[in-house]
Write a structure and sequence with these properties.
The chain has 196 residues and is an all-alpha fold. The chain has a domain of 133 residues: Four Helix Bundle (Hemerythrin (Met), subunit A) (Up-down Bundle), CATH 1.20.120. The protein is 67% helix and 0% strand. Helix 2 packs across helix 6 and helix 6 packs antiparallel against helix 7. The longest helix is centred in the middle third of the chain and has 37 residues. The chain is elongated, with a radius of gyration of 28 Å.
Length: 196
C-alpha cells in the first residue's frame, strides 16, 4: 500500500518545486501580494500616515479645518440632513435660478445663511479652543485619566453643538421650499440616481 502513495507524493513534490521556482523568478504572484494597511508602517521606508502632523498648532485639527471652523463652513457636519432631503440654505441659494426661487425665498435663504454664520462661527471657535486644551494636556505632560475625560467631553460637546446648529438650518431651509423645489434640488445635486 505504501508503494501506491509514492507516485502521488512524488508528483506533488514536483508541482510544489515548479511553483516555487516560478515565484522565485518573477516574485510573488500578483494575486497574493501582501496588502499594506494604511496605518501600518511602510515597508520601504516611505512616509508614515501622521508624519508632519506633529508640527500642527493643534494636532487634531489641520490648518484647513481651523479655517473652515472660523469661516462657519459646514465641513460635512450636516450630511444626515443634506442626504435625506433637507437641503442647506447655502446650496439652495447657489441653485436659485434652476430652482426658480421667488424673491421671498431668496431673501429667506440669505437671512438663514447670515444667521447660521453668526451662530456657528463662535461655536467653531469653541471647538478650536476645546481641541487646543486637549492637545495641551498631552503637550505639557499633564494628561491624567480625569483630565483627559473632562477635556474630551468638553471637545465633544463643542462639536455636538456646532453640528446641531448646522443641522437646524437645514430644517429651516426645507420649510421654505415647495415639494417640487425639493425634488428638483435632489436632481440638481445628483442624489436621485443613487436613490433609484
Amino acid at each position: 500500500m505504501a508503494l501506491n502513495v509514492w507516485p502521488l507524493a512524488a508528483s506533488l513534490a514536483l508541482l510544489a518545486g515548479a511553483a516555487a521556482a516560478h515565484h522565485g523568478e518573477g516574485g510573488a504572484h500578483p494575486a497574493v501580494q501582501p496588502v499594506q494597511h494604511r496605518h501600518a508602517p511602510a515597508q520601504s521606508g516611505g512616509a508614515q500616515p501622521y508624519a508632519g502632523m506633529q508640527a500642527r498648532e493643534i494636532k487634531a485639527l489641520s490648518p484647513e479645518e481651523i479655517a473652515d471652523l472660523r469661516a462657519g463652513r459646514g465641513m460635512g457636519l450636516a450630511l444626515p440632513a443634506e442626504l435625506n432631503r433637507y437641503p442647506g440654505p447655502m446650496h439652495v441659494l447657489e441653485l436659485a435660478d434652476p430652482l426658480r426661487l421667488s424673491p421671498e425665498q431668496r431673501g429667506r435663504m440669505r437671512a438663514l445663511i447670515d444667521a447660521m454664520r453668526a451662530e456657528v462661527r463662535p461655536l467653531g471657535e469653541e471647538v478650536i479652543a476645546a481641541e487646543g486644551a486637549l492637545d495641551r494636556l498631552f503637550a505639557t505632560a499633564q494628561a491624567t485619566p480625569a483630565a483627559v475625560t473632562e477635556a474630551s467631553g468638553t471637545a465633544g460637546a463643542a462639536r455636538a453643538s456646532l453640528r446641531a446648529a448646522h443641522l437646524r438650518y437645514h430644517l429651516h431651509a426645507r420649510e421654505a421650499l415647495t415639494p417640487e423645489q425639493l425634488r428638483r434640488y435632489e436632481e440638481l445635486r445628483g442624489y436621485t440616481a443613487a436613490r433609484r
